[in-house]
Design a protein that fits this description.
Immunoglobulin-like; 27 strands; flat
Length: 358
């Protein structure tokens, strides 16, 4: 992709008489901006500044240089109170737009189109020290499979910004300071968690990074490499998926299954109650009672604290339980179990789901 693409303008200027004059001029697009989104395709935007005369101007754009078709291309002009797009049409690999301007003016033409073959990801290097402090460096990885060079192209996303040249067929890694952070001593802890929705029927060992106020902003999802730094050097401990994290929220990284903790979860009972009938005696609404059970056995040599998270969808309430639980969100219950070695623990709770429909 060329950094600057010539745009041919054929301006037809209406005169006061029945005669007409044509003006052929040329302008250039500025550097491309690629918007980095989780879903494909990615979209590229280029802008050009045009000196438009009053009346109508036909803009012709060679789409073959952009790798897009006319139907895939979105064109916008500004100022909108003065300039408008009257019509558009395609000729082979060229698209044309007829612009109408109320007066002589300087206008901005914006062209946005999809690209395929450009991939990106965010990677994190997390280094943990013995005092519970940590550093996190974020890296933007780009790979150009477009079949053409990207020259002086800007890549922007959620707290992501980089301007670079990326030749065709090559990849590059760029540091992203806005996504990086340093956490003081005491910010990092290891914990044992059972969260069926995230990790299935396995208790896992988590590394939890708790930022100070304003310490970490929103983080896009990415792959994290976790290191332990000691006097003997830095050692790779694990790799984990870092989920998309809202601003200020703790970052949780799974270090893998928690050996020696055996957890079994089961739905003991499910029944419809409090059925509401319509005039024809048909059930239109009902509540659903569910009784759940969780069995935990600690086969480790030392006592552990297991944090349990149970998720229930929709509108519901906790009817009863044999252990103290806290509702921490619209869909989540949480509690903790202090499990001694070689002991078995049984927990149960009942949920009422409200206003279900047949």
């Amino acid at each position: 992709m060329n950094a600057r693409i010539a745009l041919t303008l054929i301006a037809t200027i209406a005169l006061l008489s029945t005669a007409a004059a044509e003006l052929t001029t040329a302008t250039d697009f500025g550097p491309a901006t690629v918007r980095l989104e989780p879903a494909e395709p990615l979209y590229v935007t280029r802008e050009a500044t045009l000196a438009l005369p009053a009346g109508e101007t036909t803009v012709s754009l060679p789409l073959s240089e952009l790798g897009a078709t006319a139907g895939e291309t979105l064109v916008e002009v500004a100022p909108a109170d003065c300039v408008s797009i009257v019509s558009s049409e395609s000729h082979s690999d060229t698209a044309q737009w007829r612009l109408a301007s109320l007066r002589d003016t300087e206008a901005t033409l914006s062209v946005t189109y999809p690209v395929s073959g450009l991939t990106w990801s965010i990677a994190y290097d997390v280094t943990v020290l013995d005092d519970g402090s940590a550093s996190m460096q974020a890296l933007l990885r780009l790979s150009n499979g477009l079949g053409r060079d990207l020259n002086e192209t800007r890549f922007v996303g959620d707290r992501i910004d980089a301007t670079l040249t990326l030749p065709s067929g090559e990849a590059i890694t760029v540091a992203q300071p806005a996504l990086s952070a340093t956490l003081p001593a005491g910010s990092v802890e290891q914990m044992f968690v059972y969260d069926h929705a995230l990790y299935g029927d396995t208790a896992v060992r988590l590394l939890r990074l708790t930022p100070q106020a304003g310490g970490i902003g929103a983080l896009p999802a990415g792959r994290a490499r976790i290191y332990h730094s000691a006097q003997t050097g830095r050692e790779l401990v694990a790799e984990a998926d870092l989920p998309a994290t809202p601003p200020g929220a703790p970052v949780e990284l799974s270090l893998g299954p928690a050996s020696g903790l055996v957890v079994t979860r089961s739905l003991e009972e499910s029944k419809e109650v409090d059925k509401r009938l319509d005039a024809r005696n048909r059930v239109v609404l009902y509540d659903l009672l569910e009784r759940w059970a969780l069995e935990v056995r600690n086969l480790r040599a030392e006592p552990v604290t297991l944090f349990v998270r149970q998720r229930h969808e929709g509108s519901w309430s906790l009817e009863e339980s044999n252990i103290e639980m806290e509702r921490t969100g619209a869909e989540r219950l949480e509690w903790q179990l202090n499990a001694d070695p070689d002991k078995l623990y049984d927990m149960s709770w009942q949920i009422r789901h409200h206003n279900r429909q047949p």
